[in-house]
Design a protein that fits this description.
- By secondary structure, the chain is of the alpha/beta class.
- About 35% of the residues lie in helices and about 25% in strands.
- An eight-stranded mixed β-sheet has the order 1-7-8-6-5-2-3-4, with helices on both faces.
- Helix 3 links the parallel strand 2 and strand 3.
- The radius of gyration is 17 Å and the shape is globular.
- The structure holds S-adenosylmethionine (SAM).
- The site of S-adenosylmethionine has 21 residues, from helix 5.
- InterPro entries: Lys/N-term_MeTrsfase_sf, Methyltransf_25, SAM-dependent_MTases_sf.
- This is Citrate synthase-lysine N-methyltransferase CSKMT, mitochondrial.
- It is found in: Mitochondrion.
- GO terms for molecular function: methyltransferase activity.
Length: about 250
């Protein structure tokens, strides 16, 4: 693909296949509520569920980005976090001070993540913190101050929105909303199995910024990509975000 700039080693094992009945209603909250409620806590207590792949597969990419930031606390948002271990993994491993926000619109998912947080080891940096939020990722304006995050992570959330009836419009709104939350040096990292020839032009249109693509690896025969976007320069992101959401609705 013309969009693929650099290859990463394919050395990972963790892989999850989406259940078939989820695939057609992945933008609906009650679909996810049922999904996460059914996963429940199980006999062994709360457990992470990972879409596509887990934290380990991208830990190097994420930690390298965080270590490259200027000194001071780094703010990270996992948008549509589900019960993924991305936020907790970063808290455990990152030597710098982090303020991690994990956001999902599904209360059962957030409840499980909160239980996992309570059981997790202390953060690597003693002042690092993780907070969980129940909120709609397509209505982020007002949820956090604009331009406040160094890293926004989206693993499977844009993909879920794209599968809904107003897919590209809602997913485009999500991308614009995430970009509006980025600090000037911040990055939105989207992880997906969608081919760069389809996803990169969509992201460029929705975000209005250049998109870099990096291959994450091939797990269970499926190739995954990291799509990397910076903030828009020189315009008011909040207005632009509202314009985008209105335009796509
Ligand atoms: C494919 S799953 C990915 C979950 C998690 N990021 C992972 O990697 O395992 C999509 C997630 O997005 C959440 N989601 C979908 N639409 C959302 C929305 N509008 N606002 C917030 N969360 C949403 C779902 O509840 C679900 O947890």
């Amino acid at each position: 693909s013309a969009y693929l700039k650099r290859k990463a080693p394919s050395d990972s094992l963790c892989f999850c296949v989406p259940p078939d009945n989820l695939l057609c209603q992945m933008d609906q909250r009650d679909t996810w509520d049922r999904f996460y409620a059914a996963k429940g806590d199980g006999a062994a207590g709360p457990r992470h569920f990972e879409w596509f792949f887990g934290y380990r597969e991208i830990a190097g990419l994420l930690l390298t980005h965080l270590q490259g930031l200027p000194p001071g606390p780094a703010r990270v948002l996992d948008v549509g976090c589900g019960t993924s271990g991305l936020g907790l993994g970063l808290l455990r491993d990152c030597p710098r001070r982090l303020r991690v926000s994990c956001l999902d619109f599904s209360p059962p998912a957030v409840a499980t993540l909160r239980r996992l947080l309570r059981e997790s080891p202390p953060p690597r940096h003693p002042l690092s913190r993780l907070r969980c939020h129940v909120a709609d990722a397509t209505r982020l304006a007002g949820a956090f101050p604009p331009r406040s995050f160094h890293l926004v992570l989206d693993k499977g959330t844009c993909d879920a929105l794209l599968r809904g009836p107003r897919g590209p419009g809602r997913a485009g709104g999500l991308v614009a909303a995430c970009l509006a939350l980025l600090r000037p040096e911040g990055r939105l990292l989207q992880f997906s199995d969608e081919d760069p020839d389809a996803r990169a032009p969509f992201l460029e249109r929705a975000g209005g910024v250049p998109v870099a693509v990096q291959e994450v690896g091939c797990f269970g025969g499926i190739r995954y990509y990291a799509y990397i976007l910076g903030p828009r320069q020189g315009c008011d992101e909040t207005e632009e975000q509202q314009r985008q959401m209105h335009h796509h609705a």
